[in-house]
Amino acid sequence: MLSAGLFSVQQLVLMTVDIDASLITALVERWRLKTSTFHMSLGEVTITLEDVDTLSGLPIDGEAVIIDVPDQEWSATCMRLLGHAPTDLSGSVVRISWLREQFNHLPPNASS
Questions:
Q1: How far apart are CA 95 and CA 90, in angstroms?
Q2: Looking at the predicted structure, is the pLDDT value of residue 110 above 60?
Q3: Which alpha helices (H) appear in 1-112, and where do they start and end?
Q4: Where is the Aminotransferase-like plant mobile domain (predicted)?
């Protein structure tokens, strides 16, 4: 994960966040599916790639990483890319709880 520039994903997986239900409700009420924007009192607001970069630390520049993997090969692909494979894979879905269990602690020699 580190060599792929996904250190920030590992950090996000480890985060525990208190969810503010009233804030989520307010945002859902202002979301417009047709335009993929929030309609706020100041105008239309959308989430950009720069927002994703700022909030998650995920790199947004450079070449996209796209892997076409047949459904039956996801376990082997996870093992090759992550060094671990979930036992309860459902298609290409990897559970956050599994990521937490596997990558809760980085080895001392890990680099960002």
A1: 9
A2: yes
A3: 7-14, 21-30, 49-56, 74-82, 96-103
A4: 5-104
Tell me the pLDDT tens digit for each residue of 53-67: 787 777 777 776 666
Q: Give me 28's structure tokens.
A: 């859902």
Cα separation, 92 vs 72, in Å, equals 9
Q: Which residues contact 49 (CB under 8 A, 6 or more apart)?
A: 60
Compute the distance between CA of residue 8 and CA of residue 93 in angstroms, rounded to an integer.
19
37 has a pLDDT exceeding 80: yes
- Which residue type sits at 49? L
For tokens 């993997």, name the residue: 69
Angle, CA 33 vertex, CA 27 and CA 36 arms, to 5°: 80
Contact of 80 with 4, CB cutoff 8 Å = no
Predicted local confidence at residue 67, as pLDDT = 67
Provide the pLDDT for residue 1.
Answer: 47
21 — phi, psi (to 5°)?
Answer: -60, -35
